[in-house]
Write a structure and sequence with these properties.
mainly beta; eleven-stranded antiparallel β-sheet; three-stranded antiparallel β-sheet; 2 helices; 6% helix; elongated
Length: 321
């Protein structure tokens, strides 16, 4: 590891505090073809590096570009379980032809071309209804640690082999009873069709949960109505006409990713709060980073503060790690 700090100094020149001999340092002059040089660059490398791993208590995951769902097991981090929460908004169209027939209700998720883990094995996604109102806290952020209760009985499930780089989307069939309720809503034209707040009293939210045997985390887009609950209907006149009514993700509502962990038996098992860290000396000369989990690598440059105690005026030019 190259541990060097380049310090840009202005006259008067000072002695270089370094473990190297002055003859080893690079000699740099600026503009000596026009005026007498008044600058130099000194290499400072008399400090040590302390590397450790620490945990950030919580990370804001509100309004992400991707909803994440899935589970995987890692030798360094243990078991990771990611769930995507979101709300729906009122339908894009409310006109229902007379004598329309219910076909199905589905959830369409568009791949975000993101995955982590083993996607060659079958993965399962369960769709659950949130069982209490989703409300923004005072700071308006939802966090990776935020948990909201949901009905343990899924309203839809799909087991499939994901192909995020070859297919555009997946479609999960939802409970027919719920679909018929959606269709009746269109027939009766209640206020839930035009008022978001009233609709969110009817369906408070949706959460995507990975199956127990999953081996990967998948990402699905949240932009440009990429998430939709779709009511499939048809009617017959001269010929059969299929019609779709969409309830999109509520972009002005609440959607976020929740992370759950079981680090038992791993090197980072003892990371509980951000007030403590684990030295790389106790982790096989390693430090770890896990996005979404709040695990970060910390670098302390012991002795570097001495550079600021130099008696002459100087400026930091560049630092390299």
């Amino acid at each position: 590891m190259d541990r060097r700090i380049l310090l840009f100094l202005i006259i008067p020149l000072i002695a270089v505090f370094s473990c190297s001999d002055e003859s080893d340092l690079p000699s740099v002059t600026i503009g000596d073809n026009f005026i007498k040089p008044q600058t130099s660059i000194a290499l400072i490398d008399t400090f040590s590096l302390k590397l450790s791993t620490m945990l950030i208590d919580s990370i804001a995951t509100s309004n992400p570009a991707n909803l994440l769902v899935g589970k995987y097991t890692d030798e360094f981090f243990g078991k990771t379980d990611v769930r995507g929460y979101f709300q729906l908004t009122v339908p894009t169209s409310t006109e229902l032809e007379e004598k329309s027939v219910f076909d199905s209700l589905t959830l369409v998720l568009r791949y975000a071309k993101f995955s982590y883990g083993d996607t060659l094995k079958p993965q399962t996604i369960h769709v659950h209804r949130v069982s209490q109102d989703i409300e923004n806290p005072d700071d308006s952020y939802m966090y990776n640690t935020t948990k909201i209760p949901y009905d343990p009985n899924p309203i839809g499930s799909l087991t499939f082999i994901p192909k995020p780089n070859f297919k555009d989307s997946i479609e999960i069939r939802l409970d027919d009873k719920l679909g018929q309720d959606f269709m009746k809503m269109l027939e009766d034209r209640p206020e839930e069709l035009t008022d978001n707040e009233k609709f969110l009293k009817y369906i408070k939210g949706i959460v995507l949960v990975g199956g127990e045997g999953n081996t990967s985390v998948l990402g699905f887009q949240t932009a440009d109505t990429s998430v939709n609950v779709v009511l499939h209907t048809h009617y017959v006149k001269e010929e059969k006409v299929e019609v779709r009514h969409k309830w999109p993700l509520y972009a002005s509502g609440i959607f976020y990713n929740n992370f759950n962990f079981d680090r038992t038996g791993t090197l980072v098992e003892n990371l509980k709060t951000q007030s403590e860290d684990i030295s790389s000396k106790n982790m096989g000369d390693k430090a770890f980073i896990q996005s979404g989990a709040g695990i970060v690598a910390r670098l302390d440059f012991t002795g570097l503060e001495k550079v600021m105690e130099m008696g002459s005026r100087g400026f930091f030019y560049k630092a390299e790690l």
